[in-house]
From TrEMBL:
<dbReference type="InterPro" id="IPR050099">
    <property type="entry name" value="SIS_GmhA/DiaA_subfam"/>
</dbReference>
<dbReference type="GO" id="GO:0008270">
    <property type="term" value="F:zinc ion binding"/>
</dbReference>
<dbReference type="InterPro" id="IPR001347">
    <property type="entry name" value="SIS_dom"/>
</dbReference>
<feature type="binding site">
    <location>
        <begin position="119"/>
        <end position="121"/>
    </location>
    <ligand>
        <name>substrate</name>
    </ligand>
</feature>
<comment type="function">
    <text>Catalyzes the isomerization of sedoheptulose 7-phosphate in D-glycero-D-manno-heptose 7-phosphate.</text>
</comment>
<feature type="binding site">
    <location>
        <position position="64"/>
    </location>
    <ligand>
        <name>Zn(2+)</name>
    </ligand>
</feature>
<feature type="binding site">
    <location>
        <position position="171"/>
    </location>
    <ligand>
        <name>substrate</name>
    </ligand>
</feature>
<feature type="binding site">
    <location>
        <position position="124"/>
    </location>
    <ligand>
        <name>substrate</name>
    </ligand>
</feature>
<keyword id="KW-0479">Metal-binding</keyword>
<dbReference type="GO" id="GO:0008968">
    <property type="term" value="F:D-sedoheptulose 7-phosphate isomerase activity"/>
</dbReference>
<keyword id="KW-0119">Carbohydrate metabolism</keyword>
<feature type="binding site">
    <location>
        <position position="64"/>
    </location>
    <ligand>
        <name>substrate</name>
    </ligand>
</feature>
<keyword id="KW-0862">Zinc</keyword>
<feature type="binding site">
    <location>
        <position position="60"/>
    </location>
    <ligand>
        <name>Zn(2+)</name>
    </ligand>
</feature>
<feature type="binding site">
    <location>
        <position position="179"/>
    </location>
    <ligand>
        <name>Zn(2+)</name>
    </ligand>
</feature>
<dbReference type="GO" id="GO:0005975">
    <property type="term" value="P:carbohydrate metabolic process"/>
</dbReference>
<dbReference type="InterPro" id="IPR046348">
    <property type="entry name" value="SIS_dom_sf"/>
</dbReference>
Length: 194
């Protein structure tokens, strides 16, 4: 059992080591960080969505931006589209599960906002519909996916494909990327700069 635990840690480490050694991926994270900094400076907001563990990641990232990450500072507008059970159940019942996020983007997204869709497979139907609606409304689209990128890869303005095919390892990398983005945004807008 001890070796099983060690192997889980080793697998997580290996994915992160591959990310660290991938200059293209590092540049993509920085580019998205700069994009989000400019989005906030213009007075726009971030909408985030995912399913299951990715829904938890959406809420986690939104919480870090609205509350704080490293230090006290003014709140930043970020909305996890995964939290309102009345909206989610109404849309699911009236339109279908695949429209959970697209209807909310239609209602709350404005040109210049950013939609961040999180899907380990890159093929979640409700994220794909959300990306389509976001594009129609003039939102900038970002995807966090696994290695292949799935269908999302071609629908996003920016798509970070974590170099793994294992859902837990991809999710661990997604929250790492989310934390990096939160820290970059917070420091650039409210900190001492880089």
């Amino acid at each position: 059992m001890k070796n099983f635990v060690k192997n889980q840690i080793k697998k997580s480490y290996e994915v992160k080591k591959n990310m660290l050694d991938n200059e293209k991926l590092i540049d993509e994270i920085l580019e998205i960080g700069n994009l989000l900094i400019e989005t906030y400076k213009k007075g726009n907001k971030l909408l985030i969505a995912g399913n299951g563990g990715s829904a938890a990641d959406a809420q986690h990232i939104a919480g870090e931006l609205v509350s704080k990450f490293y230090f006290d500072r003014p709140a930043l507008p970020a909305i996890a589209l995964t939290t309102d059970t009345s909206i989610i159940t109404a849309i699911g019942n009236d339109y279908g599960y695949e429209y959970l996020f697209s209807r909310q983007i239609e209602a709350n997204g404005v040109k210049g906002d950013v939609f961040l869709g999180i899907s380990t497979s890159g093929n979640s139907k409700n994220i794909i519909e959300g990306l389509k609606t976001a594009k129609e409304k003039g939102l900038i689209t970002i995807g966090l996916t696994g290695e292949s990128g799935g269908k999302m890869k071609n629908l996003c303005d920016y798509c970070i494909c974590v170099p793994s095919r294992e859902t837990p390892r991809i999710q661990e990398a997604h929250i790492l990327i989310g934390h990096i983005l939160c820290s970059v945004i917070e420091e650039a807008i409210f900190g001492k700069g880089f």
